[in-house]
Amino acid sequence: MPLSAEIAILGHATRRMKTFTSCIRASSSAALVVDNMDQGSAFLNMNEKTQLSRNTQGRPRLAALRKTLKNDTIVVSTSSAQKSGLVINQHQATDNTKGCGSSSYSSTQMTPEDNLATIIRIIEDLKKEKQREESSYQNKFNSSPAMLTDKFGRYHTYLRISLTERCNLRCQYCMPPEGVPLQPKQSLLDSNEVLQLVNLFASKGVNKIRLTGGEPLLRHDIVPLIRQISSCHPDMQSVGITTNGLTLSRKLQDLIDAGLTHVNISLDTLQENKFLEITRRKGLSMVMEAIEKAANMLPSGRVKVNCVVMKGFNDNELKDFVRLAKHLPVDIRFIEWMPFNDNGWNANRFFSYADMLKCIQDEQNLERAIDSPNDTTKWYTIDGYQGRVGFITSMSDHFCGTCNRLRITADGQLKVCLFGSDEVSLRDAIRAGIPDSDLELLVEASIKRKKYALGGHGDMHGIKEANSNRPMTLIGG
Ligand code: SF4
Predict the structure, then answer these.
(1) What is the pLDDT of residue 161?
(2) Which listed site, 259, 284, 383, 453, has its alpha carbon 20 to 30 Å from 148?
């Protein structure tokens, strides 16, 4: 049985617990919990909702954890009452534990020495299994580092990091009118944590970073962050932002000086009244000014306007958007409307790639261009136009087969797929003080569990029905 779930052991109170400051593996659906009662606890539940949480108060919440855990979960705990040894409690373990080699690790009421021996045996078995998997990966995918390569051989070199959950607009397709509950600032990654993660991913091959939000320009440290990200690794090729453009004009020069290479500006209408309707705020003129300024300040091909198309709302504006590319060196991208929690997605208002093509072609002669290998966009050119026209067809014709994208949310959750509900808290792992080598294993395990397409939901109707994702604004797009 292949092993695919990764376990972090986060104890570091005693010398014995140091034995566990490493990542080990359990069976495909089992989770292992290590609870260090004196120094905090952490658990990683590798079932459908993966999460990593931590008790920093020094007292365990084992009872609460047990309630949370599913039948296929193993709990390993240490007790302050038994500091002299380790107590392992196997909690409703099922056959899944047999994923750890052929052994069974039932150990309730064992002596401390037996417990320690058992745990060491688990770790050794799991390390061997990991080595076997790694060498088979190397054989299969040659040079791609295991940490960033999923089980379909997709090598992930593009990391999107959300810097904030806040936004100065309230776009209909993104969140409900009242907004979404935001987390306190201390729950979000600070700039040191962002940089630690960027360095980790860059050291394994990520060479393209995009900063998103919320609205990333609301983050006060955006300029120094971009400066540090752009210089963190010699192979870093691209540092972009996705912004609503409201405040871009006045910050653009500083951002470019700091190392910003690409700008995507989200804009769904060119009409003032509709802008107000869809964003629930004013500001179209400021966005238009930002598009023009960015197009003049950055090389051609590095400024994109992203337009989410909805039937009956802005499908009659496609040609107007395309005309922007005639006079400015900006690429216009039309994005199929995607279902996210609470964004009111409705199949009747879905406007497909085919619909868009039909709508534009009768006036503007689109010619199919060549897309780059991991492109999400189907590109077209028009004779005499400075910019290109592209279509992001996630719903009608997904491009998951060449996906190289990972996401980190503002609160530090790694999301390996835009539509997957699995998350692993890199924030909690960092704050628990686990070393980068263990962070790498957490990341690798998550990537190995990535589904082939659309988070495993099949199609847009499956995504809508699952309703198991975050609102777009809390993912970062
Ligand atoms: S849906 Fe998931 S797998 Fe497909 S392209 Fe988007 S992130 Fe990648």
Answers:
(1) 98
(2) 259
Q: Which atom of ligand 1 is nearest to the CA of 420?
A: 2
Considering only CA atoms, which of 289, 236, 242 is closest in space to residue 259? 236
Q: What is the mean pLDDT of the chain?
A: 77
Per-residue model confidence (pLDDT) at position 132? 65
Tokens 């061997």 locate to 128
Instruction: Tell how far the Cα of 376 is from the centroid of ligand 1, in angstroms.
Output: 9
The closest residue, in CA terms, to atom 7 on ligand 1 is 417
* pTM, rounded to two decimals: 0.72
Which residues of the chain are modeled with pLDDT < 50?
Answer: 1-109, 142
Amino acid (1-letter code) at residue 112:
P
Q: How many CA atoms lie less than 13 Å away from 202 in the CB half-sphere? A: 23
C-alpha 454 to ligand 1 mean position (Å): 5
- Best mutation site among 152, 159, 394, 405 for ligand 1, i.e. most ligand atoms within 8 A of its Cβ? 405
pLDDT in the model for residue 197: 98
Specify the residue for token string 């700091």. 258
User: Position of tokens 């299994």?
Assistant: 129
Residue ranges of domains in the chain, CATH in brackets: 158-401 (3.20.20.70)
